[in-house]
Amino acid sequence: MYAQLVETGAKRVKSLDEMSPEERAFQERIDAEIKIEPKNWMPDGYRQTLIRQISQHAHSEVVGMLPEGNWVTRAPTLKRKLQLMAKIQDEAGHGLYLYSAMETLGADRDEEIEKLHNGKAKYSSIFNYPTLSWADIGTIGWLVDGAAIVNQVVLQRTSYGPYSRAMIRICKEESFHQRQGYQILLDLMRHGTDEQKQMVQDSINRFWWPALMMFGPHDDDSPNSQQSMAWKIKRKSNDELRQMFIDQTVPQLEFLGCTAPDPDLKWNEERGHYDFGEINWQEFYDVLKGNGPCNRERIATRKKAIEEGAWVREAAVAYAEKQKQRAAA
Amino acid sequence: MTDTQLLQSYLLRLADSDMILGQRLCELCGKAPALEEEMALMNVALDLVGQARNWYEYVAELEDQGRDADMLAFRRDAHEYRNLLLTEQPNGDYAVTMARQFFFDVWHYHTLQSLVNAPDERIAGIAAKALKEVTYHLRRSSEWIKRLGDGTEESHRRMQDAVDLLWRFTGELIQPDEVDQQIAKAGIGPDPEQLRDDWRGMVKAVLQEATLTPQPDDAWMYLGGKRGEHTEHLGFILAEMQFLQRAYPDAKVW
C-alpha cells in the first residue's frame, strides 16, 4: 500500500440533500457501484484526491526501486539476481501505468514529479528505511509487497475506472513478488547457516513495525478517510486493513520459524483476530515529515537522476522535431 | 588446448561479457534519465544476465569439475574473467552508457548471427534465443546514438566525447586472437574478417547518420580482456557483485 494520509480537502462528508444536482448524480453513481470514467463529471475534490493518491502511489513504485537497487548489484546467485531485476522492472512498469492513470485526470507527470522532488508530494514511508542485508530483499517482498497487496486487492474495486484497472494488473504481479520474497526467507531459514538465519530474523525485526505503519494512522486520526470512503476511492479503513494483514501474516511468520518484535502479539479467541502492540506513531509522523533514515538520500537520488537526465530528454525532443521536419520536407 | 577447452574459453568470453555489462546496467537502477529508460535498461540487463546464465551452465557442463553457473559467476577472480574490456567501463553519462552499449551490441549481434548456425545444437539454441533479444538491444542503442548525436549541441558534444573515450576498447571486439581463429575454423564463431567488416560497416553507418565521427581504423587499441588482463575497474565490479558469496563461503543456499 503505497498511499498514506491522502488529503481530500473536505472537512466533513456532505449528505445527499446538501449536494448540487451534479454532485448528487455523481454520488448516486458511486453508490450504485458504477465506475467513474475520465470523461464523466466529477467534483473537484474527488479529482484532486485521486491525483494525490495515484501520484503518491506512482512515486512509491519509483522510489521503491531504490532500496532494491541497493542490492541488485550484490544479489547472491544468478537466479536471485534475475528475479530481483525482473521485480524492479515490473515496478518501473507499475509507475508508468499509474502515472498514465493519473494523467487521465488532467494532471501532468512532470509537474507531479516536481512536487515529489520539492517535498510537496509524499510516497510510502516504508521506502525511507534502509536495506542493510540481503534478507531485506526477501522481507520487502514478503512484508512490504504483502501489505501493498492487502490494500491493492481492495483498490481493485475503487470507484475510478482507470485506477481500478491499473490495480487489477498490478496485483497479479505483486502476488508473484510476494511469493518470491517469502521463498527467499524460507530457503534461508530451512537450508541456511546460523548466520543466514540470524540475517532473516534481524531483517524482520527492522521491517515489522514500518510495514504495519504502511496502512497509515488509526482510523480516529485519519481525517480524510471518511470522505475517501464515501467516494469509494478507499474501500476499507486503515485499521481494518492492518488487522487483515496481521491476521494473514502471523501464520506465515510462524511457518518461517521467526518471531515478531512485538511482545503483545497474540491470538485473541474472542475477537477472532490477533492482538498486537501499539505502533510508535511518533516515528511514523517523523518519517512522513522527512525525518526517516533515508528520506534525504531517496529524494536526492531521484532528483539527481531527473536533473542529470535533462539534456538526454531535451536531445530526444530535438531529434524527434528534426525528424518530423525532415519527413515534412 | 583441446577442443573442449577451446570452446570453454570462447564461451566464457560471451558469458563474462554479458554478465559484466549486465552488472554495469544494474548499477543504473533508479538513476536513468526517464522512467521509460529505467524499464528499458533493466530489460536489457535482464536479457544479458539471462544469457550469461545460459552460457555459464553450458561451460560448467563442458568443464565437468563440479562447478556450477553460480560458482563461475561469483567465485572467480578478475584474472579468470574473460569479458571484453569495453563491458567493464564505467557508466559515465548517458552518452557513454549508450556508446558502450552500441559498440557492444553491434559486435554481439554479428557474433550471434554466426553462433545460431553452430553445429553444436546447444550453442545454436542459446544463440537463437539471445539473438532475438540482442536484435532489440541493437535497434534501441542505434536509435539513441542518433538521437544524442543529432539532438542538441550539448548532446552532440557529449556523444562525440563518448565515442572518442571508448573507441580504444573496440579493437578487442574485432581483432581476433588464437581462440577466435580456431573457433571460426571449427565453424562455430564468426569469420574474423567478416566480423570486422560488419562491425565497422554498421558502426560507421550509424555514426554518420548521427553526425558523429569515428576514429581512424589504425587508432591505438587497448587489448587484454580476452586473456584476463583487465582495466582497474573489474576488481571493484567483482568485489561488489561477489560480496555475499565471498563473505559467506559456507552458505549453500541463498
From TrEMBL, chain A:
Pfam families: PaaA_PaaC. Gene3D superfamilies: 1.20.1260.10. This is 1,2-phenylacetyl-CoA epoxidase subunit A. PANTHER family: 1,2-PHENYLACETYL-COA EPOXIDASE, SUBUNIT A, PHENYLACETIC ACID DEGRADATION PROTEIN PAA. It comes from Marinobacter lutaoensis. SUPFAM superfamilies: Ferritin-like. InterPro entries: Aromatic_CoA_ox/epox, Ferritin-like, Ferritin-like_SF, PaaA, PaaA_PaaC. Transmembrane segments: none annotated.
Automatic annotation (TrEMBL), chain B:
GO terms for cellular component: cytosol. InterPro entries: Aromatic_CoA_ox/epox (IPR052703), Ferritin-like (IPR012347), Ferritin-like_SF (IPR009078), PaaA_PaaC (IPR007814), PaaC (IPR011882). One of its GO terms (biological process) is phenylacetate catabolic process. It comes from Marinobacter lutaoensis. This is Phenylacetate-CoA oxygenase subunit PaaI. PANTHER family: 1,2-PHENYLACETYL-COA EPOXIDASE, SUBUNIT C, PHENYLACETIC ACID DEGRADATION PROTEIN PAA.
